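FORM 12-B: Structure-to-Sequence Request
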């Protein structure tokens, strides 16, 4: 029998828009802080206010390979999907291919609509929230179901 995964063991890949737009960077930072209660977040830089929509100063192939290595090494992927992002969609697709648990968070009250490719994917858990404090309950339920 396998033992339940404890937060100290869990590796979380957080995905959020970078080149697709940084309007939600503050929200990403707040979500990352909440996620730290549930495990080690590999991608804290996604919430950095220093990161612009120009992305990181690195060769695109290096970013691609590093990020996919991190997705593959993660226990779970949590993505904030309110701001559309090709990269986040790609990461979600690979995570589901590798049978990683995936939680997508979509903020209501915006003019944006969630992609049917995300909301219709049976391998993705999608939860809507109005404000960041609403995410506490969502994370508790999601991670409790993984035990």
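FORM 12-B RESPONSE
SEQUENCE OUT:
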């Amino acid at each position: 029998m396998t033992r339940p995964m404890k937060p100290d063991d869990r590796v979380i890949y957080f995905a959020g828009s970078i080149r697709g737009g940084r309007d939600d960077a503050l929200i990403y930072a707040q979500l990352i802080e909440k996620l730290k209660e549930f495990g080690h977040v590999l991608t804290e830089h996604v919430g950095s206010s220093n990161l612009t929509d120009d992305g990181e100063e690195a060769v695109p192939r290096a970013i691609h390979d590093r990020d996919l290595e991190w997705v593959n090494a993660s226990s779970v992927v949590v993505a904030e999907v309110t701001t559309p992002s090709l990269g986040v969609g790609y990461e979600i697709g690979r995570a589901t291919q590798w049978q990683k648990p995936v939680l997508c968070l979509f903020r209501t009250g915006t003019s944006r609509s969630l992609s049917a490719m995300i909301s219709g994917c049976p391998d993705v858990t999608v939860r809507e929230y109005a404000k960041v404090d609403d995410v506490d309950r969502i994370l508790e339920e999601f991670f409790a179901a993984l035990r």
